[in-house]
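Take a look at the protein record below and tell me what you see:
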Amino acid sequence: MKPEGECFDATWRARAALRPCSIRDVEAFVTAHYLGRRPGVVTLVLRIDIDDVPKGMIVFALPPRETHRRYGGLTWELARLYLVDALPKNAETWVIGAALRYIKRTRPDVLYIVSYADPSVNHDGTIYKAANFKQDGRTDDERKTPRFDYVDAETGKHYSRKSHVGDRPVVRRARISKFRYVMSLVRPTPRTDS
């Protein structure tokens, strides 16, 4: 439960630090995240500490390869963000901003960050909007045919491919398209009028 009315203000920010680490160092946070698993190809993991005590993580990964073409340069995905509930309401926005500043400083070759908000779990992208990401459509905007997930009839576990399920009985469900958000890390070139 978030502290009522409290904000991640200057006092909180003075106590906070983002520290690079390995994905193994934040395994408990990865498991606590609603997806419960690591992303495919992890590029950067930052742990969020308050008073030197781990309180969450932000994980970046390589997105699908067509994403680089879509944005015209090296793009990373903000793939996982998890903070303990005891942190104030705007802590996520601060963490995203601090992580983007870290990437700009340490990885100038990364030009864009993309992330997704999944409406099937009531995510609408509020934290991305608060962090000045721009909404860039939905994941299935360009698809000609709908995508489906396969749900194990006994356990309720979701699978993206029927081949992952095996011989267990499954229910085929239409996949809900996610909202896509993008942040450019490229500084605009100043105009020089002649």
Notes: The radius of gyration is 18 Å. Residues 91-106 form the longest helix (16 residues). The chain has one domain: 10-140+177-184.
